[in-house]
Amino acid sequence: MALIGVFDSGVGGLSILDEALRQLPEHDYIYLADSANAPYGEKSSDWIAARSLELCRHLASQGCDAIVVACNTATAEAIKQIRETLSIPIIGVEPGIKPAAMQSHNNIVGVLATEATLKSDKFNALLNTLPNNCQFIKQAGAGLVPLIESGKADSEETLELLAKHLEPIQDAGADTLVLGCTHYPFLRKSIRKLLGESITLIDTSDAVVRQLKRQLEPLQKEGWLKNYGSVLLLSSKDDASLLQMAQELMSADLSLHSVEAHILGKTR
Fold this sequence. Notes:
alpha/beta, Rossmann fold, 2 domains, six-stranded parallel β-sheet, globular
C-alpha cells in the first residue's frame, strides 16, 4: 500500500483526489489544502515556489511515497524546485492545451486559468510547442477560486462572473475549452449552462492519475488486502469546512474510506 500526498492551494485538488480514489482506491491519501493562503494565482512567483516547496516537504516528512502537486499555479512556479529537492516521485498538473489542440475541429481553443499560470514560463513554453494554426483564447478566471473555496460553485454570483470570463472565448467561436485550474472542473454544470453541450471540455485529472499510477508501479506488492485506503484531509484554515467541501464536491463514496480531517500541524 502506498501513501500518496495531494497538495493544492485549496479545494481545487479535490478534483484530482476524486479521480485518484476512482482509479486507485486501495491506497492511503493525505490531501493538504492551503486554504488560509488561497488563491495562489494572485501571489508572487517567489512566494508560490517557497510555500509549495514547504508544504511538499511536510508531506514527504509524513512518509508519502509520491506527491501530486494538484495545483496548476504551483506546478508552473515550483515543480522544478520540488523535484530537485525531494527524492520521491512528484506529479504535477498543467493545462491540457496539447490534447485540446488535437481535439479541436475549428482550431479555436479557449483556456480558462489563473493569471499566474497564463503568465508562467512553463505554460508559455508548452504553448510554443504547439501548431501555429491553432488559436488559443487565454482568459484569467479572476475571482472564481475564492467563490469555489467559499462553497459557492453553483451560485448565481459565480455564474455571472463565469459568464463574463467566458464571453471572449464564446465570441471567438471556440469549440474546445481547457479547464486550466483544478478548481474549475467543479464549474462544469455552470459552464454547460452558459456554453451548451457542444463545446468540448478538457480536464486533465484522468491523465494526472494515470501518470501517478505509472509512478507507483515499482511500489506495488502482491497480496494487498485493503480494497479502500484511508483519506486524511489537512487544512491550513478550517478542517471541518474542508471535510464538508469534500463531501459536497467529490463524487467518490467517502464512506468506503476511513476519513479524518485535521488542521495542518495538529496531527501526525
